[in-house]
Amino acid sequence: MVSIKISAVLLIKKIFTQIKNLKKIKSFIQNKKSYKNSAIKVPFILKPFTFIRENGGTITKSYKNFLKIEKYNKSENKKIFYNDIKTWDYKAAMENRYIKNLKFLEDYFIPLLKPDDILCDIGCASGQYTFMMAKHCKYIDGYDMSQNLIDDANEKAKNNNISNVFFHQSRCETIKFDKIYDNMSFMGVLCYVMDDKIAEQTIENLSKGLKKGGYLIYKDNSNNTNGHYYFFGPEENYFMVARSKKKLIKLFQKKGFKIIKEDLFDTVEYKNNKHKKIPLKTDSIGMILQKI
Fold this sequence. Notes:
alpha/beta, Rossmann fold, eleven-stranded mixed sheet, elongated
C-alpha cells in the first residue's frame, strides 16, 4: 500500500515536471518568435565573457570574441541590415537623438560653412543631412557603403530638384578623394568599422582629404572606459562597436585634429537577459574637430 502511494506521488511529480517543461518550451518558442527566430548563438566557452541582451543579442569587450561569435552565427546567412535596407530615416528611427544631432549641426557646424565651400558627407545614407548642408555650400559629395541608400538619395535629389549634391558608393576606408575639401561630415559611420586598424586608416584618409584649418563634424557611439564594446544584434543582423572615447580622441589627435566643440546626445544603459543592470553604458556623442 505504501509503495503504491509513493508511486502515485512520484507520478504526480513527474506530470508536474513535464507541465513545467512544456511551459518553458512554449515560452522559449514565443521568445524566439519575438526575436524573429534570430537570437544570437554564443559558443559555450565565450559565455563568461559575453553579455546576453534582452533581445537575444550580445555585447563583448573583446574584438577576438566578437569575431568568434560572428563566425559562429555565419551559417544563418542573414544579410547585414545596412547593406539590405532601401532607405534610412534617422528621425523616424531615433527621434530624440536625431533632434539633438540636428541642433548640434545647425548651431555649431553650419555657421562655419561658406557659400563657396566644397563639402564631403561620409556616411550620407539617404541624404537627410546632406541636403541640409547643401543649402550652405557650393556643392557636396556624399558617400555611403550601401548602393541602395545611394540610389534612394539620388532619387530624392532628383524629385526635389537639388543639383549641387553628388552621391557615390564606397566604403569609408577605401574612398579615393580626387579633391581637397573645405569641410567634412562623418556621422554615424565609425561604429560600423569594427577593426581598429581600419578605423585608423579611415581617419587618416579623412585627414588627407580635408584642407588645413577645415572642419569635421563627427557623431557616433562611444563609452567612458578604456576599452571598446562590440555589439552583435539578432534583429536584421546588426553589428556595432562603441569605442572608448579616450582612445577615439587620441586617434583623432594623432591624425592631426583638435576638438573645437563636443556634446552628448544620448546615454543608453544596457541590461542582460535576467533584467539586472550590468556596468555598461554607451553615449551618443557629437564633436566639431579642426584639422591643424
